[in-house]
Structures are given as C-alpha cells and as structure tokens.
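Data availability (excerpt). The following record was deposited with the supplementary files.
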Amino acid sequence: MSRVVHNHPSGDPHPSSADVDMTRQVVDAARALRISVHDHLVVGRDGVASLKALGLM
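Predicted structure:
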C-alpha cells in the first residue's frame, strides 16, 4: 500500500484539479504494477487535505 504526499507552498492544502488528474494517472500506473495507492495527501500551512477523505479518488 502506498501514499502520495506533496506540499502546496501557497499554504492552502485544498487539492487542485491538476492534483486530482495527476492522482488518477498515478493510481492507473500503479495498478498496472499491482501497487495500490491508499491516499494522496496535500500538505499546506493551513493543514492537510486527503483526496480519499474528500472523495476525489
């Protein structure tokens, strides 16, 4: 099981549409290698956002 994590230097942890698109690409590529991606976390000064918890993956 894997997690993807990155930061937003702006401080706003809300995922962008580019984050959601990239996550889908990573999940698809990982699936081909039999790797499951459990979550994608975006870290910002104002907290952490989970794409899984937000229903975006």
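Summary of structural features: The two ends are 15 Å apart (CA to CA).
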